[in-house]
Amino acid sequence: MLRKRKExxxxxxxxETLMRDMQxxxxxxxxxxxxxxxxxxxxxxxxAELRKVENMLRALAAMxxxxx
Length: 68
Hints:
Blueprint lengths: L13 H8 L4 H13 L8 H21 L1
């Protein structure tokens, strides 16, 4: 009998986690991201992904500020 191989679950991106699993405004999420980044919470994440997340949060915070 052949066993089915376990496939690894896709890893959630940092941005996906911040946007979907946390409550608050984009500005609050950006502040939390900055604190976590400064504390070394993303030491195993790529620099490109961190830049992408930070830029996206900054853009969303600016849009929220413009609408508010």
